[in-house]
Amino acid sequence: MDDLLLGIEGEIPALRRYARVLARDPDTADDLVQDCLVRALSRTHLWRQPGNLRAWLFTILRNIHRNHRRSLARNPPPLSLAEGNEPSMAGDQISRVEAAEVLGAFRQLPDEQREVLFLIVAEGLRYSEAATLLGIPISTFTSRLARSRERLRQLVDDHGQAPRLRSIK
Amino acid sequence: MRGNREYLDREELGAYIDGELEGHRRDEVQAHLARCPADADLVATYRRLDQTLRRGIGEASGHEGVSLLEAILQARRLRWRRKRMTIAAAIMILIFAGGGTWWLHRTAGQPADLADLARDAAATYRVYAAAQPIPPATGDEGREQLASWLSSHIGTQIRVPNLKQFGFRLTREKLLTTVHGPAAQLTYTDVTGRRLTCFFRQRPASGDEGLRFVEEDGVVTSYGADDDLGYAMTARIARRELQAMAEVVYEGPWIEIAGE
Q1: What is the mean pLDDT for each group of 10 consecutive residues in chain B (260 residues)?
Q2: Closest CB to A34 among B58, B71, B251
Q3: Are strands B219-226 and B195-202 parallel, antiparallel or unpaired?
Q4: CB neighbours of residue A131 within 10 Å
Q5: Quick check: helix, strand or coil at residue B114?
Q6: By the 8 A CB rule, do B66 and A101 touch?
Q7: Buried b / exposed e across B43-59, counting CB within 10 Å, b at 16+?
Q8: Whole-structure pTM over 0.90, yes or no?
Q9: Does B1 touch chain A (CB under 8 A)?
Q10: Which among B53, B79, B254 is the nearest to A117, CB-wise?
Q11: What number is the ipTM of this complex?
């Protein structure tokens, strides 16, 4: 039980990242994580040892989000993926520009494309785990991921022209 | 264009990047990349995008706004509330059982099977006479409506499992009467016509029970309890197969009722 608690605590950063991809607004995202923790802790008996704790917690988070969203269906969510969540001083100036570009393009992706990219690229889930989490066949998942990657590349390509030209001045 | 056979499709390249390819296929892709600068270029671009994205998203770490301790306390309160509700249910059952004894006295002196029949009739009436028409269970929305409909009749919250990934589709939902009260039975069918049922019933006891299995004449049942909800899944299939489904349904992405 204590191990599980430590494990869950260790997953909080990942949960917050996922919540921000789903909820797009930091406050709602943190509420989502908090609800997820409560539910996970009151359901620890459902956790089975050999398994991916992160995938299990993500599933819970996703279910709560879906339920929340249904009740919020009338109010469209604010359009910003965790504003103020810009990349910090990692690397030089050029890579900061690039990082901002990529994040900007990422925010423009449709929800389901953002989600698959996030699960694999940012959180390193296996395809099978992510497919189970989303409740879709693995083949559907694989092609959705490929489409999302390609879309992201195109968006960065399109947007990449302007800032680069401007930075020459 | 990339329609050329010389190029690998993007799913394959993506799977390669994500380490999803097994040894043999991975080597093939590697060999291909050595020969095909265009694909090698694409892989490099994808990798760079992945890396940038990972770093960008990774900035949102830290714990502000989220408290594990608060969650622990809240989870404890929730457990207590559920326990209190179970105690209340147990008291109701005691009162009900008292009524049952009175009923037995009234019917004393008659053949026992007739008394049973009368009780079955009354129990059936209690379940069905009050029932509203079952809502159609199509889509997530429908599943939730069905879940809350069934929940209201069996007296505890149930969830309607989604077995699509195993090839089973919900084909029939039924409210049943049992000696221990109303129960819900959901029947699933796959393309080959195999049937599987999920069975839910409120139980007087509280507390969670992990999955167990019982097998008789090739019919396998997995069963357990989530507090006051007893559940079972039955089918004439290999135990291993049923176990995989039961674990996903009960321990994986369950379908919750909105507003719980």
Answers
A1: 61 93 91 92 93 78 62 71 67 60 52 68 64 61 75 77 85 78 85 88 74 82 80 88 81 40
A2: B71
A3: unpaired
A4: 22
A5: helix
A6: no
A7: beebeebbebbebbbbb
A8: no
A9: no
A10: B53
A11: 0.74
